[in-house]
Design goal:
The complex is a heterodimer. In chain A, 76% of the residues lie in helices and 0% in strands. Chain A is mainly α. The N and C termini of chain A lie far apart (52 Å). Chain B has twelve helices and two strands. In chain B, strand 1 and strand 2 form a beta hairpin. In chain B, helix 3 packs parallel to helix 7 and helix 4 crosses helix 7. The chains are: A mainly alpha, B mainly alpha.
Chain lengths: 281, 332
Amino acid sequence: MNPLYVARARTDKIIRFLCLSAAAFGLIWLGLILFTLISKGFAGLSLAVFTEMTPPPGSKSGGLANAIMGSIMMTLIGVGVGTPIGMLAGTYLAEYGRHEKLSFYVRFINDILLSAPSIVIGLFIYGAVVVPMGGFSGFAGSLALAVIVIPVVVRTTEDMLLLVPNQLREAASALGLPRSLVIRRIAYTAARTGLITGILLATARVAGETAPLLFTALSNQFWNVNLMKTMANLPVTINNFVQSPYDYWRQLAWTGALLITLAVLALNIIARLLGTERKSK
Amino acid sequence: MTDMSVPAMTDRTKPLDRARALAAFKLGDSTFYWLTRASALIVLCLLGGIIISLIVGAWPAIKTFGLEFLVTRRWAPQLSPSPVLGALGPLYGTVVTSLIAMLIAVPVGIGIAIFLTEFCPPMLRRPVGVAIELLAGIPSIIYGMWGFFVLAPFMTEHFMPAVIATFAHVPVLNVIFAGPPSYLSLFNASLVLAIMILPFITAISRDVFQTVPPMLKESAYGLGCTTWEVVKNVVIPFTRAGVIGGIMLALGRALGETMAVTFIIGNSFQISGSIFSPGTTISAAIASEFAEASGVHMSALILLGLLLFVLTFFVLAAARLMLARLQQQQGK
């Protein structure tokens, strides 16, 4: 055979092997992380985790009940505040201002906010909310999460509305519906599953955010549902417990990490299932 | 009589109702329009708000240290009468950890993406792709924790001593890989960062590779190209802007990442030539010192945050421009 062919086939094989080993290398690390998380996390899973408060130093009993509650509250409020703003802004980009100069800038800035370092968002809320209000609070934590939710929702709303065929809008307009009703009744309905997917993804994104809560919501050793006080939450609790010298605290940190990961994965999977359902229709 | 009055009534009220309904429509229409427009403006204001709030917070430090801040190596917040604070240590740590992480994650991530789009048996393509996307969604604190409890001890006990011994007598390399091995080190932090951004790079590169029209690839195969030649000569040139954009997005993430590095970087403001020694990054410094800081120390930490934001802003802006170029190319 022509030696050139042999050489080319050999290069192809080598590259094929390299790509395969890259895939194996990457997947092994990621598999190891999941394995450790599951084996260590499940070891500490018990009813007490959901019913008892975070333990004081040195204690051998206690759970994460207040942290779980705080995380759920702040995530829901953050998503609740961020979603309407994000959806309306996304609607402007996709429906009213599709070709306007303003949309160009908003889109660009939104893309930057989408991947801005979350610790900077924490600093922003510290300066804009915590200092004027005179103290750390669950409210400030929720706002920090809302700032992270907004760009995610803007992005998905715009993308999903752009997928709605224009003929639908034109048909509705021809029947005499005003523009705002065309958008709310027709475009939103047509894009509904996509919009829900976006909100779920945004929830998954903020559920595990730690850095923006470190100096906004801080943490709290006790049960607290008052938004104006510091509020316990899973990520910051994990952060504090990982660096502690107590074995029981470290064990709780793993359990908390497992809970967050399971919640985030569940949200992602539901979002994905909704997405495929839409495509198959 | 009643029969007559009914049409008469509707005739009288119809124009009135119509006008009222139209007015309500008009009001609802313009309210909705302004709501959406205001929300779009809120997004712009968020960026402005972030910048203004950081500048206000950092102002005392800017006034005290000025441009010196950027080139000062010392970080002594407790020094009396006036603390000496400089950004050089965290800046160095941020750049070094991100660079090492990119050096590891970019080739591997793109390799996996090529594997997924070109070499992978179609049966495995979806499950592996989905697994990688799910992994990209795992919160970074999980990676940080795993690095702290599992990776750092392993690397420090098994990998580092071997590397230090191997390069002990090679000039330059014996400085970069100088001992003693430490749990808390730039290298361990970079490795965790690399593992964290790996799924991210893979997911973006795969999406970008999938934009190559099958016709182009099939033509190259028709000419007798091997798979690698198709990748090298068709796929990569076609998607270059997109891949670079994706890499820069990942770089933006690596630069600003906090929780994956804070536990294992050591929070040391020293600058050492060895990547096996402790260091700090901007975000790790803020995360570990902000709670106890006050006065000019706190202000200096906010100034660090401002520097980080400016740095990532330019990286991300460049990334977005690159990705936009790919979209334009597709539009052609």
